[in-house]
Automatic annotation (TrEMBL):
Keywords: Lipoprotein, Protein transport, Signal, Transport. Gene3D superfamilies: Lipoprotein localisation LolA/LolB/LppX. This is Outer membrane lipoprotein carrier protein LolA. Monomer. The keyword DNA-binding does not apply.
Length: 205
């Protein structure tokens, strides 16, 4: 579930404008954030685990493709890659080996997790509003969204997701149900090129 929560945050990069406009503040965020077909960038992640003095840190890069899924590539401290599609989650290790982390075709009970992820990407407003309570506010030239889960399944995984940004999501904070906290910062965001490269498309196969 830790993996799924991190990937959920990655998908938020493309999905923040899709939250239902329940009030003027949410509507302002909806209008402010870009909705590209493909978004690329870099991430740095810091997780504070209860009982540990020093946080766990990682860095890498990602591709969010609205019609395909997410490629989440960790470069430090250990190279690895996770690919999410509508049907499955794959992990690739630095030796080139691939493992299926989740196959929704074989585990129907887990399909709802993928459904939420792709509701964020595809603009399924009804699905989103049924799963999240949304609080929005403007902060200078930017904005802040706090999402709290409605479903018991998501509530078991995390307490809240807080997003901050402008045209793009720049920072995500995850507060887990056990109070562990993860901060993810996104940088070097770009919409160009607007389509997947041959290598990126191959990695979704």
């Amino acid at each position: 579930m830790v993996l799924l929560r991190v990937l959920l945050c990655a998908l938020m990069l493309a999905a923040a404008p899709l939250v239902q406009a329940a009030d003027a503040a949410v509507d302002a965020v909806t209008q402010a954030v870009a909705r590209p077909d493909v978004l690329r960038g870099q991430f740095s992640q810091e997780k504070q685990v209860s009982g540990f003095k020093n946080p766990l840190r990682s860095q890498g890069q990602f591709v969010v493709a609205r019609q395909h899924g997410v490629i989440w590539t960790t470069l430090k401290p250990f190279p690895s890659e996770v690919v999410v599609t509508a049907d499955r989650i794959l992990s690739r290790q630095r030796d080139g080996s691939t493992r299926v982390e989740l196959d929704a075709r074989q585990q129907p009970a887990m399909r709802s997790v993928n459904a939420i992820m792709f509701a964020l990407m595809s603009g399924d407003v009804q699905a989103l509003s049924s799963q999240f309570n949304v609080q929005a506010s403007r902060e200078g030239q930017g904005w802040r969204l706090k999402l709290t889960p409605k479903s018991a399944m998501l509530a078991k995984a995390f307490e809240s997701l807080t997003l901050q940004g402008d045209r793009y999501v720049r920072q995500v904070e995850i507060v887990e149900a056990n109070q562990d906290r993860t901060q993810i910062h996104f940088s070097a965001l770009t919409e160009a090129p607007a389509s997947l490269s041959a290598d990126e498309a191959r990695r979704f196969d």
